[in-house]
Design a protein that fits this description.
The chain has 193 residues and is an alpha+beta fold. Helices cover 39% and strands 22% of the residues. The longest helix is centred in the C-terminal third of the chain and has 15 residues. It is globular, with a radius of gyration of 18 Å.
Length: 193
Amino acid sequence: MTEICKRLNCTPNFQEAAWDGIFLAMAAGEYDWLADGVTVTAERDEIVDFSIPYVVIGQVLLVRADETASVDEIKADSNRMVGTQIGTTNEIVALEHFPAERVSSFEDFGAAVLATISGDTDGVVIDNVSAFGFMEANPGKLKIQGELTSDEELAFAFPPGHELIEAVNAALESMKADGKLAEINKKWGLASE
């Protein structure tokens, strides 16, 4: 957002908000711009408008570092629980891969990761970028056991018809053209190249 605002001559006013309900708040115009690893989905697109995507990511199963079971073995074991964050595409992916009674949805990923580290759950369905961040923050305690998806586009969300959409898209296109977007994505671990 900082680079986009440089190009648009704007000053962001960052505010934290609960993820659960954020899209309805966006649709109601409570915020101008949502920038928090937002996956583009058809359901969300019905209530908010999206910028062009700025990166494509995947969902993984993050487990304790000493875990030996494969993703398929964890899926097949009726005693295995996984965690994720409520109201996210991660939760949707978790429910696609695991029975609902084996999915614990937490208020945030930090709580889901702590539940896995402590042994309350056996893994966290999370995007690969966040997984790397939690692995870095908890050295030697976590690892990625396998990929669940690989094709999720991240974009910025706006209230329907918002005046910033066209300008943000233009800034993103210029950042793609001059290499700045790739540089920023690499800096923040969103892309390896």
